[in-house]
Write a structure and sequence with these properties.
- The chain is of the alpha/beta class and 316 residues long.
- The chain has ten helices and 13 strands.
- It has a seven-stranded mixed sheet with strand order 12-11-7-10-9-8-13.
- Bound molecules: (2R,3S,4s,5R,6S)-2,3,4,5,6-pentahydroxycyclohexanone.
- (2R,3S,4s,5R,6S)-2,3,4,5,6-pentahydroxycyclohexanone binds next to helix 7.
Length: 316
C-alpha cells in the first residue's frame, strides 16, 4: 500500500487534533505541518514526526503531500482550498468554507471547474455515532415536522455574534440540513448580549423547504459543552443524549473525539479510492447562506430569506 502523505495547515487546536489522528492511521504519514507561527509548527511537527514550515503555499505544492488538511484561521480557508484544488489535491477543509457567501461560492465554482469532487468540509458531526444513530431513527419516524438543535459552549472569551453564528451555529445548521435532507429557506433570530461586544445566547427559528420547522439554541457561555438534537417526526420522537448526559466537558475535543477519528478514517479511505464523499463545498455554501441570514435577522429583528445560489449538478 502506497503511504499517503498528508500536509496539515494550521497547528492550533483543530490542526493538532487532525495531525495526531492522521499520524495514528496505518499507511498514513503526516509529512509537513505549516503554521505562520513558527513555534507552533515546530511543536506539532515534532509530535507527529513531520517537517515544520511557515508557508502553507509551499506545503500545498510539496510533491510528498498527496492530500491537504486545512485547519488554519477561518479567513484563510477559501484561498488555501482554491490553491489545493488548483494543484488537484484532495482536501479536508475545516469549516467555515469561507467567511462570506461570495467566498464560499468561489471555492465551489473552482471545484466545479475541476469537474470532480476533491474537497470535503470538516462538518464532522455526520461522523459522530450519536448523530448517526439519530439519523437512522429519523428515517423510520416518518415525515420530519420539527428539529431542535441545542449547542452549548463554555467560552471564557467573549465572541461577537457574527463569530458565534459562523463558527458554532454553522454546525447546527448543517445538522438540520443533513437530517431533514432539505434546505433552510428563512430564519428569525434573537440574541442576548454578553459584556461589551459579545453574545451570550442566540436562538433562531427556521422554516425549511420541505415545510418542516427547526429551532436553533446556542449558548456561548454555558456550564459545560453540550450538543443535543431532537427530531419530531410524524410517527415518533428521536433524540441524541438528554440533558443529564454524563459527558459534560469544557470543550468539544473529548465530546467529539470519536467523530474526529471516524472523519479522519473515512476521508483517508475516500482519498485512496479517489471518491471524495462527506460534507461538500455545496454544504459549505448552503450553510454559509443560512449563517448570513441568521446574522442579518439578529440585526433587523425580522424574518430573513436565505439567499441560496443554484446547486451545481456536481453535488446532486
Ligand atoms: C468550534 O469551532 C467547533 O467547531 C465546535 O465543534 C463547536 O461546538 C464550537 O462551538 C466551535 O466554536
Amino acid at each position: 500500500m502506497h503511504e499517503l502523505g498528508i500536509g496539515v495547515v494550521g497547528a492550533g487546536g483543530m490542526g493538532s487534533e487532525h495531525a495526531r489522528n492522521f499520524a495514528a492511521l496505518e499507511g498514513v504519514r503526516v509529512v509537513v505541518v505549516a503554521d505562520a507561527v513558527e513555534a507552533a509548527a515546530t511543536t506539532l511537527a515534532a509530535a507527529v514526526d513531520a517537517e515544520p514550515i511557515t508557508d502553507a503555499a509551499v506545503l500545498i505544492s510539496d510533491p510528498r503531500v498527496d492530500a491537504v488538511v486545512i485547519a488554519s484561521t477561518d479567513e484563510t480557508h477559501a484561498d488555501l482550498a482554491m490553491s489545493a484544488l488548483a494543484h488537484g489535491k484532495p482536501t479536508l477543509c475545516e469549516k467555515p468554507l469561507a467567511t462570506s457567501l461570495e467566498g464560499a461560492v468561489n471555492v465551489m465554482e473552482s471545484e466545479v471547474a475541476v469537474g470532480r469532487r476533491l474537497l470535503q468540509l470538516g462538518l464532522m458531526r455526520e461522523y459522530d455515532p450519536a448523530h448517526q444513530r439519530l439519523r437512522q431513527q429519523v428515517k423510520s419516524n416518518g415525515r420530519v415536522n420539527h428539529i431542535r438543535a441545542v449547542h452549548r459552549n463554555r467560552n471564557e472569551f467573549e465572541r461577537t455574534i457574527d463569530h458565534a453564528i459562523s463558527q458554532s451555529m454553522v454546525h447546527d445548521i448543517h445538522t438540520v440540513r443533513w437530517l431533514a435532507e432539505t434546505e433552510v429557506v428563512s430564519v428569525l433570530a434573537r440574541s442576548l448580549p454578553r459584556g461589551q461586544n459579545g453574545v451570550r445566547f442566540v436562538t433562531a427559528s427556521a422554516r425549511l423547504e420541505s415545510g418542516c420547522l427547526a429551532t436553533f439554541e446556542f449558548d456561548d457561555y454555558a456550564f459545560g459543552y453540550d450538543v443535543s438534537v431532537e427530531v419530531s417526526g410524524e410517527d415518533g420522537l428521536a433524540k441524541t443524549a438528554g440533558p443529564d448526559d454524563p459527558r459534560l466537558h469544557d470543550d468539544w475535543f473529548a465530546w467529539f473525539a470519536d467523530a474526529y477519528r471516524m472523519e479522519a478514517e473515512a476521508w483517508v479511505e475516500s482519498v485512496r479510492s479517489g471518491d471524495t464523499a462527506g460534507p461538500s463545498a455545496w454544504d459549505g455554501v448552503a450553510a454559509q447562506a443560512v449563517v448570513e441570514a441568521v446574522q442579518r435577522s439578529v440585526r433587523t429583528g425580522k424574518n430573513e430569506i436565505v439567499e441560496l445560489p443554484v446547486k451545481p449538478p456536481l453535488y446532486a
